[in-house]
Amino acid sequence: ITGLGGTLGGALALIILLLQRKRLSLGARLAQALDKRRLTVVYQPIFDIGTNTPRSAEALVRWVDGKEAIPPDIFIPVAEDEGLIKRVTLSVLDRVLADMTAFLQADRTFRININISAADLIDPAFASALEQRLRQANVRSEQLGLEITERSTANAAAAVDAIRTLRARGHRIYIDDFGTGYSSLAYLGNLNVDGIKIDKSFTQTIGTGSVTVSIVPQIVDMARVLNLGIVVEGIETATQRDYFAGLQTPIDGQGWFYGKPVSAAAMQELVQEKF
Ligand code: C2E
Ligand code: CA
Ligand code: CA
Ligand code: CA
């Protein structure tokens, strides 16, 4: 009897320990936040560098748990590891589509990009869920761009297929954080995307005399040869803006110099005033 009691007690202690662990893990907290629809979205404008006019915006997810703001760089990898990323993507999408009505009233040509992960890209159900939601929200696929990382194209065959399908439906596809991965010119040609977003690590070296800068004109040339759109990330200063303006090719820019990510209401005002 005592032996059995001890075993039961041990099992109970283990269960309590597991429950506590679960309560504390970031993944479990995120699952809860998803259930309660606690994730929100902010919007950062993207400008045409040459004409200094806003063209579109990127949606960025935000999570405040109690009083703690948990940055996406922390929780997105957790979501990817713990099978929650598809729910995160769909909750961002729902938010964006709900906000889109107001943006489109301010400017009916307004476009927005969302970030998607590898798991979304190669999931055939994602493309259908996307189209269904767009139809319900009365938003055209041309108005919703998708940013994917080089990493998410590692499964090349599946990625190429998925990109073809999504582009055929009208979505623009951008390779995010370009230059931080392994993409070569040939590789980019095969992927058949609409554009690249040059990673902010390149922008940050401008004006510092770093050799990394010397690669930037080559990336821009390559993109031009491949007929790809170019967006430069992380433009914080006029010096950085001037550098890219000086490359004499159409380039879009995004960064604090143009505007930090803002709420949907603030974005709507911006669209009304400037777009
Ligand atoms: P990202 O897609 O490369 O997004 C750009 C990040 O740079 C954002 O950080 C943005 O706030 C920040 N940023 C913008 N302008 C500047 C600037 O001038 N200087 C500097 N230093 N930073 C700037 P954020 O919002 O913290 O997002 C971090 C990353 O988390 C994103 O990088 C993206 O990889 C991921 N992420 C964000 N939202 C989502 C989402 O809805 N879904 C997925 N799958 N990933 C997301
Ligand atoms: Ca992005
Ligand atoms: Ca990026
Ligand atoms: Ca990034």
TrEMBL record:
It is a multi-pass membrane protein. Its main location: membrane. Keywords: c-di-GMP, Cell membrane, Hydrolase, Membrane, Transmembrane, Transmembrane helix. Residues 23-275 form the EAL domain. One of its GO terms (molecular function) is cyclic-guanylate-specific phosphodiesterase activity. It is found in: Cell membrane. The keyword Cell membrane applies. The chain crosses the membrane at residues 1-19. Its EC number is 3.1.4.52. It comes from the Bacteria. It catalyses: 3',3'-c-di-GMP + H2O = 5'-phosphoguanylyl(3'->5')guanosine + H(+). GO terms for cellular component: plasma membrane. This is cyclic-guanylate-specific phosphodiesterase. It comes from Phyllobacterium myrsinacearum. The lineage of its organism: Bacteria, Pseudomonadati, Pseudomonadota, Alphaproteobacteria, Hyphomicrobiales. The chain holds residues 244 to 518 of 518 of the full protein.
